[in-house]
Amino acid sequence: MNTIVTYPNGSMLDHIAWVVPDTKQGVEQIADLTGAQPFLMPEPEPGAYYWSGGLVIGDGPQLLEIIGHNPNYEGQHPFFHLLRSFPEPRLLFWYIALNDFDAFATQADTAGAPLSNVDHFVPPDESFSEYKRGVIGSQFSFVLPNVIQWIRRRKNWSHTPDRSCSMRSFVIEHPDPDALEQRYAQLGIVQPVHKGAQPALRLTLSTSRGLVDLSGVGEPLESLS
Question: Which CATH code, of 3.10.180.10, 3.20.20.80, 3.40.190.10, 3.40.1280.10, is assigned to 1-225?
Answer without folding.
Answer: 3.10.180.10
